[in-house]
Amino acid sequence: MTDVLRTALKPRWLALLAVALGLATVMASLGQWQLDRARENSRARAVREATARPAVPLTSLLAPRRPLTNADVDRPVTAQGRWDAAHQVLVADRYLDGVRGWWVLTPLVLDGAGSGDAVAVVRGWVPSPTDAAAAPDAVPAGPVRVQAVLRPPEPPVDRAPGAGSGLPAGQLDGVDLTQLVQRWPQPLIAGYLVLTAQDPPASGTAVPRPVPPTAPSSQVLAWQNLSYALQWFVFAGFMLALWVRLVRDDHRGRLPSSAPAADPEAGPEPATTPTDRGVLS
Amino acid sequence: MKSALTRYRVLAYATGVFLLLLTLHVVLQLAQTSDLAWYDRDGIGSVLPGGRTWVPMVHGYLYLAYVIITVDLWFRTRLVVWKTVLVVLAGTVPFMSFVAERWVRGQVEPLLEAEPADRSA
Fold first, then answer.
1. Interface confidence: ipTM more than 0.90
2. Which domain holds residue B93?
3. Which stretch of DSSP H or E encloses residue A111?
4. Could you tell me the residue ranges of all domains in chain A?
5. What is the number of structural domains in chain B?
6. pLDDT tens per residue, range A103-154
7. CB contact, 8 Å: B73 with chain A?
8. Quick check: pTM over 0.90?
């Protein structure tokens, strides 16, 4: 063992160890970088890309009883109409920056194309159902143009027939269109919007905090980065394994001082020295 | 040594082919017009279903295997070190792994003839 150590401490092996460790460090950090990318990719990038598309009028994509297609999920849209403050509801158990609160969900009754239809819009988040920004009289009156991100409706909460959500009146446990169509008189568009901007802008202090439009993760991209990360880690490990193997060979006296095999005169090494033992053997 | 050479040759071709597919993928991505950033476009995925994901992934694993198999071959043959490093790097340059494969074959086949016939692997 000490002999192996003495071999390993030869200057050339120490130098090679430094090189191998350096390369392994670079490779491991590249692997870490790919892991970070995998993590970031699956969420933030999907959102960024989906929301980077140019906004289109909502009514060009959807109408009541027309289903939302996957391609339109997270698409930025514009819509114009008036807020129907009297029918505003709160969606319970919504978190913003880790704080439990409520979404303020207000019907926007459309003008122009699709006039009279309504779409559910998350205007923002409030920390308490009694927050001033959650009050119906805090809803801006008059015509409004909104910019928003289109989201698919949330699935209905599974519960026994006739059982209520147990929430106070005016609160829902999801952006569930099957509940909204019973509360709101207008024909509803099959999806909801997360407000990003409105014109005229909301003024005053009683404005719910904006909710970041979230998107489901794109597993495919994440897998690709995880794959690259794994490959970098294997390369890093391989560098060190290679060094160990070289030292071991030198210790057993098998490593030629130079590389003679390419020298046609030298030919292969004598069969007594087992050169034909690769890393796999 | 013979099967190590065969393993190397199979991987040199496989890596070379997938590197060409990957190159084609990037060229297609750059040529395509889309709202997305070029590296997020479908690329070869428009020709091979899902290719946008599996072509880069398979190439990654193949190259990993290529490096390991090349080093394994070096342990058995002790080819010139710096040229072996070039062989490893050739796996990252389009078409070069085919050139490297020819060089390796030219180097290793004479060794095989000089080698006693009964040695395995």
1. no
2. 2-114
3. none
4. 2-40+220-262, 75-214
5. 1
6. 999 999 998 877 888 999 999 999 999 988 888 888 888 899 999 988 888 8
7. yes
8. no
